[in-house]
From TrEMBL:
Top-level division of the source organism's lineage: Bacteria
Protein's name in the database: FMN-binding negative transcriptional regulator
Pfam family for this entry, one: FMN_bind_2
Matching InterPro entries: Split_barrel_FMN-bd, TR_PAI2-type
Provenance organism: Microbacterium resistens
Length: 218
């Protein structure tokens, strides 16, 4: 992803927030045959405070992704959506697409069987925990043999990125009144209404205003 300084995200807390909120990721790796993209849920490592993430792939995706041998890029896609030029007012403009994305790149560490089991359990608990009657990975009718047989068909990994590219393209290059109008349109009921993107734009806009106020008061 080509970076634009105007849209760069650099705050680790914000990067962790986006990763945590959007765990369904795209994994891009390569082997001797070329590049492959796969899709898996990936979580932040709960034992780390940086951008280290944990995940797994099904065999033989570990081979085509070059897992543990080649650089792996993990793409987390945050809120995104269409922005009409009509929302900018009476000015020359073209459509655009606002979005938030975080790319983590590095050579992942392959996990042991027991580490991988813990990662798989965390993944299940993360999503089952939202249900009124969550069913854990080890809950009956699953038994130890069943769980371990499934684990054997996966490869767990831990990735501490050596390169991070994060982009928040949310109309920051537009005047405040235009940004507010885009937020209002996204918050409405039209064909491109997008509450998640509107909330992300509001968060970024409020942060920019707070930063401007702090600079003015210093």
């Amino acid at each position: 992803m080509r970076q634009n300084p105007s849209f760069a995200m650099t705050d680790p807390a914000e990067l962790r927030r986006v990763i945590d909120a959007h765990p369904w990721a795209t994994l891009v790796g390569r082997d001797a045959q070329g590049t492959t993209a796969s899709h898996y849920a990936v979580l932040l490592d709960p034992e780390r405070e940086d951008l280290t993430v944990l995940g797994h792939v099904g065999r033989p995706d570990d081979l085509v992704l070059g897992l543990g041998r080649e650089e792996l890029t993990i793409v987390f896609q945050g809120p995104h959506g269409y922005v009409s030029p009509g929302w900018y007012g009476d000015t020359a403009a073209v459509p655009t697409w606002n979005y938030v994305a975080v790319h983590l790149s590095g050579i992942p560490e392959i996990l042991s069987t027991e580490e991988n089991l813990r990662v798989l359990e965390r993944l299940v608990d993360r999503f089952e925990g939202a249900l009124p009657q969550p069913r854990g990975m080890w809950a009956p009718p699953n038994d130890d043999a069943f769980v371990r047989r499934l684990e054997a068909g996966t490869v767990g990994f831990r990735l501490t990125p050596t390169r991070v590219t994060a982009k928040r393209k949310l109309s920051q290059n537009r005047p405040d009144e235009v940004i507010e109008n885009v937020i209002a349109e996204l918050s409405g009921t039209g064909p491109f209404a997008n509450a998640a993107l509107a909330a992300e734009m509001r968060r970024a806009q409020d942060a920019r205003r707070a930063a401007r106020a702090a600079r003015a008061g210093s």
